[in-house]
From TrEMBL:
One Pfam family per UniProt: TM_HPP
Cell membrane listed as a keyword: no
UniProt KW Amino-acid biosynthesis keyword: no
InterPro entries xrefs: HPP (IPR007065), TM_HPP (IPR058581)
Keywords: Membrane, Transmembrane, Transmembrane helix
Parts of the chain that traverse the membrane: 53-71, 77-95, 116-136
Protein name, per record: HPP transmembrane region domain-containing protein
Domain called HPP transmembrane region: residue spans: 3-139
Length: 171
């Protein structure tokens, strides 16, 4: 049943995305979010599918792209550096969302205007996070809640803190 819900949720989300792209005459509207939809609908409990990673990852990756575009201009090599740097930065900031790594690639290669960040990246990420949240609540009969519960998150942080404390004591 979870696979059916993931498929139907993806179908609805991509259809909405296509409609928005068609209405806004913005061909790049869909590209950053197709794989995000697959991740968020298919694996809603993984850390990379949480709203913090979804929104933060897309915004940070876009900012990396714009920073490099501003500093070095448009070139395939700058785009490649942008993807690598975006992955590094999002991992360090704990907002890693793999599909967002396409943002610097698109921004640098296509010299996209800064409006793309606000009108597409930010709006799209927030709308997708909202849709995923509502969809997970509508599918209450399958254990697929998103975002992960606070206690799940606290358990992860508690485990990290304990590991860090053990390492410090051993030193």
């Amino acid at each position: 049943m979870a696979a059916v819900l993931a498929g139907v949720g993806s179908l609805i989300a991509v259809s909405g995305l296509e409609f928005a792209a068609h209405m806004s005459h913005t061909p790049y509207w869909q590209i950053p979010f197709i794989t995000s939809i697959a991740l968020v609908m298919g694996l809603p409990k993984v850390e990379a599918a949480q709203p913090r990673a979804l929104i933060g990852g897309h915004v940070v990756c876009a900012l990396v792209g714009y920073g490099l575009l501003w500093l070095f201009g448009s070139s395939p090599w700058v785009a490649a550096v942008g993807v690598g740097l975006a992955v590094f930065v999002t991992l360090r900031l704990k907002v890693f969302h793999p599909p967002a790594a396409v943002n610097p690639f698109l921004i640098v290669n296509e010299s996209l205007p800064i409006e793309f960040l606000f009108s597409t990246i930010l709006v799209g990420a927030v709308l997708l996070a909202g849709f995923a949240f509502v969809w997970s609540r509508l599918s209450w009969f399958v254990e697929r809640r998103m975002p992960a519960t606070v206690t799940e998150g606290a358990g992860v942080w508690r485990a990290r803190l304990n590991a860090l404390l053990k390492r410090k004591v051993a030193e």
